[in-house]
Amino acid sequence: MKEESYGKILIAEDNVMTQKLLGSIISNLGHEVTMVSDGMEVLEKLTLHKYDILVLDFQMPVLNGMETLKMIENGVNVDTNMHVIMLTGETNHEKLTQFEGLGISCFLKKPIQYDILSRTIKQLLNNDQYIGVKNAASTSYLQRITNSNKDLMVELIDVFIDESPKNLHLMKSYCLIEDWVSLQKLVHKVKANYSYVGIKAHEVILGELEIFISRNLYPESYLPKIIELEIVTKNAISALKKKKSVIVNKING
């Protein structure tokens, strides 16, 4: 049995009651908790210490969640392996698109639900099962369906690399606003993309997710499964970039 991982977690939340609730839940799960009240304090802590997860409220004084993430992106010395959980009461899908590309691992809706928070943290800290996996992606099927057309193979790989992070962001947004119909449609839509580029690990994740959503089962598991899929996807994209480079060299050679 895999040993449970425990981490150092920085919580940025200005509401005292929410602070106490989050601190109690997360510390009782066995993690080391540091609490701050605004974005500037987050930046100060990150320059001094390394954290496994940053739990960040969107609405905060001094620097809000988005401003804090942009400051981090623009040069604060932060461990790139740190996960970010964004807390928000925002349920407008269009507004959530502004967070795309800021390195957010997932959104959690306030008020916080214990099961979803605990499962999400556990998934983020136990994400190494797919890291460095051999054969994370394979181009053999892509080669067959394109009849070994190398230019088309490169084009399809580029589409997967470009579209997959956007689709994952959409999935997380749908979880936040509990739009299960849109989530199910998107899950069904992307399954073929993963098959085309030979990613085997997606079959169980997306298969279970699609069944659970269609039967309205275990909604607390949807976000952790999407996080698991994101880990699979990042590992696969890294492998696909290397395979693409080999194909391009053959085209140019």
Automatic annotation (TrEMBL):
Domain HPt: 149-253
Residue positions, PTM Phosphohistidine: 188
Alphabetical list of InterPro entries matching this protein: Bact_response_regulator, CheY-like_superfamily, HPT_dom_sf, Sig_transdc_His_kin_Hpt_dom, Sig_transdc_resp-reg_receiver
Keyword list, A-Z: Phosphoprotein
Record has Phosphoprotein as a keyword: yes
Chain positions found as 4-aspartylphosphate: 57
Name the record gives this protein: Response regulatory domain-containing protein
Species assigned in the record: Anditalea andensis
